[in-house]
TrEMBL record:
Protein name: CBS domain-containing protein/sporulation protein YlmC with PRC-barrel domain
Domain CBS: 357-414
SMART domains referenced in this protein's UniProt entry, alphabetically: MgtE_N
Organism: Paeniglutamicibacter kerguelensis
Transcription in keyword set: no
Length: 432
């Protein structure tokens, strides 16, 4: 590989575009993969992880990386577009080594890893040659000099103790470092971890954060994580999930486990989930949320706008206010109609909702199947639709994302179909 310098630093590579020899963009570099060889040898870099369109991450061997220059990375030959799966001996530098606390080999204290340098040996292999670290405490330095707290140092690889290199970055550190990551992206990151690491990291999340992330994960991984939490905490996490997502997850568990968790949940939260579990799979009732925004016809536009501003509401649920007779909790009194967000924005705040109802759009039956719900949403360009029982009482609302979850293939979150021009790699370049 050619480079403008004899050394490259991994933090500067993250996020760079990766191109093929013809100049077509393959994706963006997200991490670097190394393996630990022994205590007397530096870790070897074996490849990089590239995020291709579709948010799927693939492995590109270092033997295919031909250049890192002018803010871009160029690879050659065929690239295996199969999803990257980390093997036991492999270490993801950004995910597992950055922000890790390490010890200096001379006994002068500890430091935190901020960056790692790679250098190419004469034989062509790329190795970890340097650590860029932030020293944590006052201590005698490597050369016997007094170092101040927070000082940053560039040290050779053998100045750092490597005995724990195979161990992953502490789960608490990983969670803190990715606190701003969107739930769907965090779910993608968990998906790429091995089973043990996935459970370790997920267990460190706060209940509400874990609930948001679980809702974005495949069913089998949801079950795996929930089963590892212990019954008490699993019930707490289920309470934080949207009722329809909690019901979907519980339906994947054994009957005994499902009933035990429902008993541990707060009665009010469990009640909504139990109602959803009573519906047959594939009906509007089974996929709806039982807690849409519901107000009386006497409520004002100002009250409605305040209600849809709630942070916990999804954009789809916040788009519509449903108006019913008391009681206003599902199943409600008689369903009267709906008021869409645009109507609220166009109407004076003191106006009563009963005066601006959309009564022409009929709600859908809780027994309607997925195709009927999808057709209704598409026909009227809706993001949510009221669901009523045979007595005309509102029992919930179904949103467009609920329908998509049922129309897409079961494995859509991890689906590997990819219309890339690069065919699978030849023997010797496969991974995962």
């Amino acid at each position: 590989m050619s480079s403008n310098s004899s050394k490259v630093f991994i933090a500067r590579l993250l996020g760079l575009d990766v191109f093929d020899p013809l100049g077509d963009r393959l994706g963006r570099l997200r991490d670097v993969v190394v393996i630990s060889r022994s205590l007397t040898k530096p870790a070897q870099c074996v490849g990089v992880v590239v995020e291709v369109p579709g948010k799927r991450r693939v492995f590109v061997p270092m033997t295919r990386i031909t250049a890192m220059e002018s803010g871009q990375i160029i690879c050659s030959g065929l690239v295996n577009m199969r999803r990257f799966q980390q093997r036991g001996a492999e270490i993801l530098v950004a995910a597992e080594l950055f922000d890790r606390r390490v010890l200096f080999a001379d006994g002068s204290g500890h430091a935190v890893v901020e960056d790692i340098g790679l250098s190419q040996e004469r034989g062509g292999d790329w190795i970890i040659s340097d650590y860029f670290v932030r020293r944590g405490e006052h201590a005698s330095g490597i050369l016997g000099l007094r170092r101040s707290r927070g000082e940053r140092l560039l040290v050779p690889w053998n100045a750092i103790i490597h005995t724990a290199l195979h161990e992953p970055q502490a789960a608490t550190t990983y969670v803190a470092a990715h606190d701003e990551m969107k739930p769907a992206d965090f779910a993608d990151a968990l998906h790429e971890m091995n089973d043990k690491r996935r459970v370790e990291v997920a267990s460190e999340l706060q209940d509400d954060r874990l609930a948001d992330v679980l809702q974005e994960m495949p069913d089998d991984e949801q079950v795996q994580i929930l089963s590892a939490l212990g019954m008490e905490r699993a019930a707490d996490v289920l309470e934080e999930m949207d009722p329809d997502d909690a019901a979907d997850l519980l339906s994947e568990l054994s009957e005994d486990t499902k009933h035990a968790l429902l008993e541990l949940m707060e009665p009010e939260e469990a009640r909504d989930v139990r109602r959803l579990l009573e519906y047959a799979e594939g009906t509007a009732g089974s996929m709806m949320t039982p807690v849409p925004v519901i107000l009386s016809p006497e409520a004002t536009v100002a009250e409605a706008l305040a209600s849809v501003r709630r942070e916990e509401l999804s954009p789809a649920l916040a788009s519509t206010v449903y108006v019913t007779r008391p009681p206003l909790e599902t199943p409600t009194g008689r369903y009267l109609g709906a008021v869409h967000i645009q109507a609220l924005l166009r109407t004076p705040p003191p106006e009563s909702l009963g005066n601006i109802l959309d009564t022409h759009l009929a709600p859908i039956s809780d027994m309607a199947d997925v195709p009927e719900v999808a057709r209704t949403l598409a026909t009227y360009n809706l993001t949510s639709l009221g669901v009523v029982n045979d007595a005309g009482r509102l029992v919930g609302a179904v949103t467009v994302d609920d329908v998509l979850d049922h129309l897409l293939p079961e494995d859509w979150r991890t689906h590997d179909d990819h219309t890339a021009k690069n065919p699978p790699a030849k023997n010797g370049d496969t991974h995962g």
